Amino acid sequence: MARNLQKLQKLIVVGHGAAGLAAALSAAEQARSRDWSVEITLLEKSREGEAGGNTRWSPSYMRLDAPDRIDPGFEQDMQHASDGLADRSYFRILAENAVATVGWLQTHGVEFVTPVYYLSAGPARIQPVGGGNAIVEKLAAAAQRAGVKICYETALNGLVMTEGHRVRGVETQSSDGVAEIAGKNHVVRKHDFIFLPPGVEHAISNSGLVDLRSQRSAPVVLVYPYGIVVDQDGRRFFDEGSGLVHETWEVFARDIHFSRAGSIAYAVLDSRLFDIEGFGRAIRSEVPPYWAETLEDLAPRIGIPAGALRETVDAYNAAATGDVTRFDATRCDGLKTAGTLKPPKSNWARPITKPPFLAYPLVGAIAYTFGGLATNEKAEVLGERGPMPGLYAAGETTGHFYGTAPNAVSVLRALVFGKIAGREAIEFIRTRADQD
Q: Which of 20, 86, 195, 433 could form a disulfide with 15 if both were Cys (CB 3.0 to 4.6 A apart)?
């Protein structure tokens, strides 16, 4: 029988995505292992069938070599991606706990595969079978079996504070009206607390380049390195082959969103795209590309001047004089344009000559923001006076990314630090109860 306490201890978790579910389930398991009776409530503003936040729609790639192995250079990769600004202790804890967390997911029925990632090589990744939706469904079911009470259609209005910086509870909004829920502890995973400073473009992370016409979630079009990209005036504006897609899509998407007229650009290719084995893996849009037998006929279909498009393609073709037998879509192949082309193309520079000619409209999709709550390696939220007693955070609401987001890390860190937050919350409750 769970140990009785003088007062019923309560833990409030906000959010039904990877971080919130991991926190709630981890807390329930930790309490059970301590033989403690703790009432755990998870608040979710969505309806039950729509709950899961970004996790439900994410492919949830995770940067591991295999479910039981993480690359020894993981921490160094995080430092490189952040230009040395990343919190070393945070990413050390992430690396040290990643494999165990994946194993924990497996015990709750989440299966993993090693996906073929788009077309190009890159860091090894694993993926849950069924993507992020599988994480949401499996962890939600496990949490409910463990006794977690999930309140759907219940939004968080704010935190209820006491003693200056200690969390006493939360204020919620539901169909029953405004209510206050008191708790000894609070784990938050929510975007409401992110502050976007002036110069917001530096705080935005773009997940990639998506087809403006598509109705799907994350309809990325990542074949742009194998052709050229033009703006609404029909002009190239960056090196499409400067790196593998996971190295270039974010900078490129940000450029389109903030610097190009109409926040749109167009990937222009010829029919040799179809000769690339597995090219469809790099296209998640369900809408076929615009196409035409000539560039002059293609241009009006995408709303750009035909003469400008012809001039741009001719200039590119004149500079694409390398040995096309070197073309290799899976790696940086060194097939570059002549030095006269500005901007250059550093890889995959084949002439665009084989009809029909294709075009995809591209926009930058905003997936999440940089900045957010400062947390430490215990997932404690940091205030001006250090850790705020009883307040934990995990997931995208926390900071730790700078300049660019390292690929295939977001869901992994949400799960790792959500699990840590739940465990630490129960230990905090135990400590406070002993003091009382």
A: 20
Other CB atoms within a 10 A radius of the CB of residue 133 amount to: 16
Residue pLDDT, tens place only, 391-426:
899 998 888 888 777 888 999 999 999 999 999 999
- Highest mean predicted confidence (pLDDT) among 37-46, 47-56, 257-266, 292-301: 292-301
Q: Which residues contact 281 (CB under 8 A, 6 or more apart)?
A: 116, 117, 118, 119
**Per-residue pLDDT tens over the stretch 153-201:** 998 888 887 766 677 778 888 877 777 776 554 555 543 332 333 344 4
**389 to each of 103, 166, 191, how far by Cα in Å?**
30, 5, 20
Residue among 373, 398, 383 at smallest CA distance from 94: 398
The predicted model gives 24-33 an average pLDDT of: 96
Buried b (16+ CB within 10 A) or exposed e, 343-364: ebbbbbbbbbeeebbbbbbbbb
> DSSP characters for 256-273?
HHHHSGGG-EEEEEEGGG
Helix (H, G, I), strand (E, B) or coil at 233: coil
What span, in angstroms and rounded, lies between the C-alpha atoms of 210 and 212? 6
Residues 424 and 379 sit within 8 Å (Cβ to Cβ):
yes
Q: Token match 């007062």: residue?
A: 7
Please write the tens of the pLDDT for every residue from 264-285.
999 999 999 999 998 988 898 9
Instruction: Using DSSP bridges, classify how beta strands 166-174 and 177-182 pair: parallel, antiparallel or unpaired.
Output: antiparallel
The encoded tokens of residue 150 equal 């999930």
- Under a CB-based contact definition with an 8 Å cutoff, are residues 168 and 181 in contact? no
Length of the chain: 436
Tokens of 294: 């000539």
CA gap 426, 38 in Å, rounded: 8
How far apart, in whole angstroms, are the C-alpha atoms of residue 433 and residue 131?
39
Look-up: residue for tokens 């050229």?
228
Inter-residue contact 149 to 253 (CB < 8 Å): no
Which residue segments constitute the domains of the chain, with CATH numbers given?
A: 9-195+371-435 (3.50.50.60), 207-366 (3.90.700.10)
